[in-house]
């Protein structure tokens, strides 16, 4: 917090410090010949006063220093007044005034910085409160969602009596909606947990090719409902490859699911989504290619930011957390994730992970 500016008071110790300094300079100035300029020493009380006194009080101190400096030309009387004596006094006066102006600006700058720092601290505190609130709310929402899903599934299994076919369709829709909400809540909790505690990985040798096939199979209902075809390639090779990495199976599945679901949801009906798996020197590379609307240039730098949804058709729906969580997971594995437009149409979302040494890749 900034210090409160004071008005000079004879009861204040600070007042007597400045008065004492003025007295010392005054004694030196008027006890030496006018050719010796001691008024430069008035800079000390001016600078000291600038840190505590108001601008009006500082102006009064500078004015007093200027008057005493010029007065020493005539008092005490020392005979002839030389031009050099007057010039030296005027230069001193200019230096005192300039010192006061610069110190005042410096003081104002410090005050502005202190105010901005206080605002930033207040904003940071508000953001922390918001994040704590969001994390607590997401945690509290998880239990009722799980209960609702279990209840709806019990109705679907006809544990509370027989239901009609149309009712089953409605129940299935409600279950999917609640499951989507549960996944969103879990993603939100994971994002906050990763930021505060760091992402805890359970590392083991993992074949990315097997992982990609399993995730693609699990997303077949989604791709079928949107008439999007999933294909898997191994670059220029026609044969199945093994892309071994040291990774966390659960977390890397989430990356594949997020990227594939993102590509499916933003592809036109009848289009296809390609998963390309390649090995490049010491890294394994995964690319998810779609034939959708592509990425706008001004949105590209923000695609993997938290809660960023953008304005293009690609990010028209969703929480803006899937890509951000994917970036957290990939970077925790020592890899990189990126997005780029595909020529002539579509987009590529890819990531690169360090490959296991060749001896570790023999595990099949």
- Percent of residues in helical segments? 40-55%
The end-to-end distance, rounded to whole angstroms, is 64 Å
Largest sheet: 5 strands, mixed
Radius of gyration: 37 Å
Mean pLDDT: 80
Written as H for each helix and E for each strand, in order along the chain, the element string is: HHHHHEHHEEHEEHEE
Regarding quaternary structure, how should these chains be classified?
Answer: single chain
Give the helix tally: 9
Class by SSE composition: alpha+beta
- Strand order of the main beta sheet, please? 2-4-5-7-6
Strands, count: 7
Q: Tell me, briefly, the overall form.
A: elongated
Q: Uncertain spans, ≥5 residues at pLDDT below 50?
A: 359-364
Instruction: Estimate what percentage of residues fall within beta strands.
Output: 5-15%
Instruction: Tell me the count of domains.
Output: 2
Give keywords.
364 residues, 2 domains, Heat Shock Protein 90, disordered C terminus, two-stranded antiparallel ribbon, five-stranded mixed beta sheet
Structure characterization notes:
The protein has 364 residues and is α+β, with helices and mostly antiparallel strands. It has 9 helices and 7 strands; from the N terminus they run H-H-H-H-H-E-H-H-E-E-H-E-E-H-E-E. Helix 1 packs antiparallel against helix 2, helix 4 runs antiparallel to helix 5 and helix 6 packs across helix 8. The C terminus is likely disordered. It catalyses: ATP + protein L-histidine = ADP + protein N-phospho-L-histidine. GO terms for molecular function: phosphorelay sensor kinase activity.
């Amino acid at each position: 917090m900034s210090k409160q500016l004071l008005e000079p008071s004879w009861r204040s110790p600070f007042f007597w410090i400045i008065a004492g300094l003025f007295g010392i300079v005054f004694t030196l100035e008027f006890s030496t010949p006018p050719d010796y300029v001691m008024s430069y020493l008035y800079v000390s009380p001016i600078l000291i006063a600038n840190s505590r006194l108001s601008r009006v009080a500082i102006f009064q101190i500078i004015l007093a220093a200027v008057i005493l400096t010029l007065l020493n030309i005539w008092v005490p009387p020392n005979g002839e007044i030389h031009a050099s004596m007057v010039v030296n006094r005027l230069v001193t006066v200019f230096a005192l005034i300039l010192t006061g102006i610069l110190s005042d600006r410096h003081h104002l700058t410090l005050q502005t910085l202190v105010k901005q720092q206080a605002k930033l601290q207040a904003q940071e505190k508000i953001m922390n409160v918001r994040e704590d609130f969001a994390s607590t709310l997401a945690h509290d929402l998880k239990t009722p969602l799980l209960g609702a899903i279990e209840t709806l599934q019990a109705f679907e299994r006809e544990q509370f009596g027989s239901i009609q076919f149309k009712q089953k369709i409605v129940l299935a829709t409600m279950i999917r909606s609640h499951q989507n909400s549960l996944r969103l809540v879990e993603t939100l909790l994971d994002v906050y947990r990763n930021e505060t505690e760091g992402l805890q990985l359970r590392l083991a040798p993992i074949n990315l090719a097997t992982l990609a096939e399993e995730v693609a199979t699990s997303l077949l209902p989604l791709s079928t409902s949107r008439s999007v075809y999933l294909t898997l390639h191994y670059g220029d090779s026609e044969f199945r490859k093994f892309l071994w990495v040291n990774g966390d199976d659960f977390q890397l599945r989430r990356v594949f699911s997020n990227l594939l679901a993102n590509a499916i949801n933003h592809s036109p009906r009848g289009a296809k989504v390609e998963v390309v798996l390649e090995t490049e020197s010491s890294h394994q590379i995964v690319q998810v290619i779609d034939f959708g609307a592509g990425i706008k240039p001004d949105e590209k730098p923000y695609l993997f930011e938290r809660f960023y949804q953008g304005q293009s058709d690609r990010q028209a729906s969703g929480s803006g957390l899937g890509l951000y969580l994917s970036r957290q997971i990939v970077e925790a594995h020592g890899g990189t994730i990126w997005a780029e437009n595909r020529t002539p149409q579509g987009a590529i979302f890819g990531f690169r992970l360090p490959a296991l040494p060749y001896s570790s890749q023999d595990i099949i």
